[in-house]
Amino acid sequence: MLKGLSDGRTHTVVTGVCLCYGERERTFYTETEVLLRRVSDEMIKWYVATGEPMDKAGGYGIQSLGAVLVERVNGCYSNVVGLPVSQLLVELQELLTEKTD
Fold first, then answer.
1. Number of H helices, E strands in the chain
2. Strand (E) positions, 1-101?
3. Mean pLDDT of the chain, nearest integer
């Protein structure tokens, strides 16, 4: 997976969230573009040997050692980590202040 993601093209990380509070519900998704550096087979072998990518959906952990693989992030960094925190806060505020009929 890392070899394919580090081919010089961006990939998109998409996270979907559904929030429920009583009868109220809000859903949203966040997209973030990530460009990984072109990395050698040796670098990929080293990274895999650390064990870090084994429980990562995309095969790398941007918040830890996998950060060395990342060249650029366009969008929400926390989305790549796993949860778009800033958008979550906006949506929670909307959900909790919605007026019910």
1. 4, 3
2. 11-21, 24-36, 70-74
3. 93
